[in-house]
Every structure is written in C-alpha cells, then in structure tokens.
Design goal:
Layout: H1 2-14, H2 20-48, H3 55-88, H4 99-117, E1 127-129, E2 132-134, H5 144-179, H6 184-187, H7 191-220, H8 230-248, H9 250-260, H10 265-284
Antiparallel strand pairs: 1-2
Helix pairs in contact: 2-3, 2-4, 2-9, 3-4, 3-5, 3-7, 5-7, 7-8
Amino acid sequence: MLGNTAVVFGYLFCLKNWNGSNIYLFNLSISDLAFLCTLPMLMRSYANGNWIYGDVLCITNRYVLHANLYTSILFLTFISIDRYMLMKHPFREHLWQKKEFAVLISLAIWVLVTLELLPILPLINPVTTDKGTSCNDYASSGDPRYNLIYSLCLTLVGFLIPLFVMCFFYFKMAVFLKQRSRQLATALPLEKPLHLVISAVVIFSVLFTPYHIMRNVRIASRLSSWPQHPCASSIINALYTMTRPLAFLNSAINPVFYFLMGDHFREMLTSKLRHHFKSLTTFRR
C-alpha cells in the first residue's frame, strides 16, 4: 500500500494536466485512505467491547481519526478557494492556481494539522478495568480542564475559521455570478464551481457542527463545577457518541468531490494507476 501511494505521489509531480483543485482532491483521498485503515481495529474493538491492540495503537488510531477530520476540512476549504479563483481567472494565470503552489499548500496543511494535533497525544488515556481495556476518545478521558481548553482552541482553528473562509468565498462567488447573470454564455459554466462550494458548506454545517458542539459539551460535563445529574450526563454522552460517526461520515461523502466534481481527476488517477499495475505485472513476468 505504501509503495503504491508513493508511486501516486510521484505521478502527482509529473502530470502536466493536474491543476490545483486536483491536487487538493488527491490529498483529500489520501486522508480518507488513512481513515479507512483505522476502521478494522475500531470495528473489532466495538464488537468485542474492549481494546486489544495496546496503548500505542489506541493513541495512533485516535490521532489518525482526528487528522482525517481536520485535513478534510482544510482541503475542502482550499477547493472552495480554487473554485472561486477559477471563476475570476479561468485560464489559471493566478499564483493561487499554479500546481506548484497547490503542492506547497497541501504540504503546509499536513504539517499544520500534525502540529495542532500533537497536544492530543497526552490527553488520550486508555482505561483498563476488570472488563478489559477501553480506548476512549480524548473527550471522555484525561483531565477535562485541559481537554476543554484544547478542544475549544481546536474548534476555533480547525473548524470555525475554515468555515468562515469557505462561507466568505461562497458569498464572493454568489456576488460574482450575480454580476455576470446578464451574460448568459459566461454565467452558465460558472454554476458548477458554485454548487461545489455550496455542497462543501452543507457538509460543514450538517456533519461537523454537531460534533464540535457536543464534544465541548461532553468535556464540560465532566468538570466538577458542572451540575452532576446522572441522567443528563448519560444523554450528553449518548448525543456525543451519535455525532462522532456523523462527523467521520465525510470520508464516505468526499468521493463525490474527487470522482464527480473534479477536473478529470478520476480519469487521470485511474489511468495512471492502471498503467502502473500493468507495468508491475509485465516486470514480474
């Protein structure tokens, strides 16, 4: 798997037809691939009722889950920016639309998300009881005072600011289309990037907002100053548990972006992968 991924990254730099949007979509697919690798362990642990893979894999698993969440948010944000720049500069002559710039932005996103998630490592504490080991989310483990501060900061930097940026460019695109509405031949081709940004904003609102709200509420409910009512605590925990799979549902919806709305992304990627596998088969023979 790692070898094939490295080959795909190599194609990323040599494909002349790849543009900024396709590079962001490609990185989005890599993020989803990493998320899929965490599912077998999660499914087995939920089926058995305990975590059998050790503390290191527990922390790593939770780390990858959050990395997928916040890289997805940022790549969707830059896809929205790229769509707006495509409307303003249809011949991709602007710096923000250059392939090299998109590669640098993608690398910066991976580094930024890695750094902003480093504080999560000491906050995840696997719990061992008579029934076995539990690999809890950091909202349900560790010191709630520090967890709440970190969660609020992560909500601001990783979710609210990208959401604001995406809404800003949606507004700019809507204004731009309104100004061009009298030019029918020009306005019609520009509806597709607007629909893409609208879809991304909907994903933000429906999938990510409930999770971030309930995560902070869940952590706050563990504070000693919070009114301790067993029934209310159980309801909060249940609601938070429901919003977690809703948030990570973005990995199932993201393929809509890179298979249906990308600029020939599917054709380029599958063509190169098919050529790569064909070359491997020929070499082995």
